[in-house]
Design a protein that fits this description.
By secondary structure, the chain is an alpha+beta fold. It has helices spanning 2-10, 13-29, 35-39, 48-60, 77-87, 95-102, 112-127, 179-193, 198-211, 218-232, 255-270, 274-282, 331-356; strands spanning 64-65, 74-75, 130-135, 142-151, 154-161, 166-171, 240-244, 288-290, 304-311, 317-325. The protein has 13 helices and ten strands.
Length: 357
């Protein structure tokens, strides 16, 4: 980033304008940009020959590249980074885009996950790219926990949260469990649960089990530890990455891009590195742009990621929304879309939690 700022500062006005025109035209068309095309858009009349010389200088700086034998130029990853950091003009959010995002709040299906599914669909439709929405984990305080025996090898744990949310999960209890041991386990857990979220309770229970190991019936202890193992497995309380619009990435893709897009599809399908996705967003408030190999989540595909966190009423980051696509994304248009969507989701989830408590 320091390199791009230095290069930009050393460029004269003509070089900056030629560079900006090349990048804007490339982002709009996806095709290499020739000197004649640039000359028609310049603010002052400059010959194509002069522009060619400027473009050659920009290529020497590593900002432009000549693909194949084409006479046109395309921006490099360094060039795109410099454009995004120093020259990009972020457009205002279009009315139709705002309306499409706002329409996601009027769905018939209630619940956070349904809302975020609609948000993902809207984002992919508006941007013609793939959308990523990281749903928050359910982290309200636990009000009550109960264990119910279903069979000799199956038990049900019922979790009631302070916001009214209820989860039922089936797991395998330790052998030889008695009704009294189940009651003792439930009493032990509920005595620790007050004012704690599930993740906080989990950590606290571990310490208490270690400290009071002699006081707890061995069967009850086994049940509690089985419950801890079950809560740590993949479930509704963990972050969920919602991916929509993968097919949009195939539009306008040439043969050279197909392998990279397949690699991206594989990454998205396996939904790996979800925690890192949120970590990207947590590195600073507002929209962040990762271009090509800067995007370690999907670096094999050479894609770009535009991502923004959303927050709850306590200004704590609880999830993120983003758009992923080719490096020639229309960043100036997508940034305000992602920013507005993240703010809207944060307001909606904060309002929903207030209504429920």
């Amino acid at each position: 980033m320091e390199d791009t700022a230095r290069i930009l500062a050393e460029m004269n006005d003509r070089s900056r304008e030629v560079f900006r025109r090349v990048v804007e035209t490339y982002l709009d068309t996806g095709d290499p940009v020739g000197s004649r095309t640039v000359s028609r858009t310049m603010s002052e009349k400059i010959s194509p020959a002069t522009i060619r010389n400027v473009m050659q200088d920009l290529e020497m700086l590593g900002l432009l590249d000549s693909p194949h034998t084409s006479a046109g130029r395309v921006p490099t990853q360094l060039g795109l980074r410099m454009f995004v950091d120093g020259l990009m003009e972020v457009s205002t959010l279009a009315v139709e885009d705002r309306q499409a995002i706002d329409a996601t709040t009027g769905g018939n299906e209630p619940g956070v996950n349904s809302l975020l599914d609609r948000v993902g669909q809207a984002l992919s439709g508006i941007t013609h790219s793939a959308s990523l929405v990281l749903a928050p984990k359910h982290d309200a305080e636990v009000r009550h926990i109960d264990f119910v025996s279903l069979a000799h090898d199956r038990a049900l744990v019922v979790l009631v949260f302070s916001d009214g949310h209820v989860e039922n999960r089936i797991f395998t209890p330790p052998p030889g469990l008695t009704p009294s041991a189940m009651r003792e386990a439930a009493n032990f857990v509920n005595a620790l649960a007050e004012g704690r979220t599930l993740s906080e309770l989990r950590d606290h229970m571990r310490k208490e089990i270690a400290r009071r190991r002699q006081e707890i019936d061995q069967a009850a202890q086994g049940l509690i530890e089985a419950g801890i193992a079950m809560w740590e497995g993949a479930g509704d309380t963990r972050e969920r990455l919602i991916v929509r619009g993968q097919s949009n990435l195939l539009d306008h893709a040439d043969e050279a891009d197909l392998d990279r897009i397949r690699a991206l599809f594989d990454d998205l399908e396996r939904k790996r590195d979800i925690a890192e996705f949120l970590e990207h967003a947590e590195q600073g408030e507002g929209v962040r742009i990762f271009i090509g190999s800067e995007n370690k989540l999907f670096s094999l595909s050479g894609s770009s990621l535009v991502v923004s966190p959303y927050m709850n009423a306590d200004r704590k980051i609880i999830g993120a929304v983003g758009v992923i696509g080719p490096t020639r994304l229309n960043y100036g248009r997508i940034v305000p879309i992602v920013d507005y969507t993240a703010q809207l989701v944060g307001r909606l989830l904060s309002g929903e939690r207030k209504d429920q408590t």
